[in-house]
Design a protein that fits this description.
- The chain has one domain.
- Helix content is 30%, strand content 30%.
- A three-stranded antiparallel sheet has the order 1-2-3, covered by helices on one side.
Length: 71
Amino acid sequence: VVLRAVDSFPRVTGLAAYRIVQESLTNAMKHAPGQPIRLSVRSAAHEGVRLRIVNTLPEAVGGERQQRNAR
């Protein structure tokens, strides 16, 4: 995770964002192996950091695909 406005955020914020992304990717690979994962990171000094991690789950019983959003 690279925060563009590094001077505006405490180091702990970058570390927290990194760990959240790390855990989200681990969970996606564990629960939906081989499925695509979309990740977006936005930051603004007065708004903080916004992470969005989206992955598609494999087909569930009945043939429906599911999608999870983590915020």
